[in-house]
Amino acid sequence: xxxxxxxxxxxxxxxxxxSFEEFxxxxxxxxxxxxxxxxxxxxxxxxxxxxxxxxxAPDAKNDFLLYRADIDALPIKEENEIDFKSCNNFMHxxxxxxxxxxxxxxxxxxxKERINKNILFLFQPAEESGGGAIxxxxxxxxxxxxxxxxxxxxxxxxxxxxxxACSKGVLFSSTLEVDIDFIGVSSHVxxxxxxxxxxDALRLFLESAEKIPKDFTEPFIFGVGKINAGxxxxxxxxxxxxxxxxxxxxxxxxxxxxxxxxxxxQGIEKATDVKIKLNKGAVYPEVIVNDExxxxxxxxxxxxxxxxxxxxxxxxxxxxxxxxxxxxxxxxLGTSKGENHGLHNPKFxxxxxxxxxxxxxxxxxxxxx
Length: 369
Prior knowledge:
The model has no long low-confidence stretch (mean pLDDT 96). The chain is an alpha/beta fold. It folds into 2 domains: 5-172 and 286-368, Zn peptidases (Aminopeptidase), CATH 3.40.630; 174-283, Alpha-Beta Plaits, CATH 3.30.70. Helix 1 runs antiparallel to helix 3 and helix 5 (198-210) crosses helix 6. Helix 3 (96-112) links the parallel strand 3 (64-70) and strand 4. It has helices spanning 5-14, 23-36, 96-112, 132-137, 198-210, 251-272, 291-304, 320-325, 353-368, and strands at 42-45, 52-56, 64-70, 118-124, 147-160, 164-166, 169-172, 174-183, 187-188, 221-229, 235-236, 239-248, 275-284, 287-289, 307-309, 328-336.
């Protein structure tokens, strides 16, 4: 007997796996889908080491609609006291357990109602670390299909339970993670001339980055969340490390800012003789909501559920890659019953009911197209 969507969510939440390590999650999904698919309507592909693509094709002549959920978790220790609390030091603190269970529930409804449309269901790995979408795409598996549109959702307790929040154009910002190493020479604080202070170079770098001219007609962020330098109080650091993120409404402007950081680093190298290495981390193109899909879906969905235009967010999302490839529709799905912990929080915990709400919305979208 196939497990229920709620049961699946609880197993996933209790046993979270990090990006590119979702091996047991992948096995669980394959087994659950095989139990669910008694009539053998589904074809399961595993072209990458984790994650899976599921084909449902009752009509060989038509295009495919792609629905995507992400399956990875975060290195966060859960603080909720529940029966299905995480059993390790990781957590589905961004709701990917809910996304996955919604897609599984959606598949069960499609099978039950014998929908006569071609659909691909993607359980994507590694959204959190970035690169999961493009890594899976680069396997070439999508070349087998003519994909017309792509769809996804993201839960959040910023909005009340059951609310859809979406906007035409850019919904989520482009995001580029940046790791910067400053390589100098350590010296005793009493003899600074014997060294090359990496922290001083880092400080000059940040001061210079703050002075880069900005276009105030639209939002742009260069945020630094982590800095490491030095080992003891009386030694000038010979090495320093910075981890940050660049966010804007277009990948072009995000990349341009990175080039400006490179130029700054070259100047500081000459001034301090400290070597500076800039490395790109995860890259998320901006998520673009197709105008035509929005105009088609808004009147239908707003009759059934609270639908608000939320404008753009400076959140990064790996679904941006698919929205660059196919006309797409992504939306926030509210989960709040009064709480507002926010994503990536050790107390973030949507109710199981959201699994039904999300699947019903996917069905409504399917029925509109």
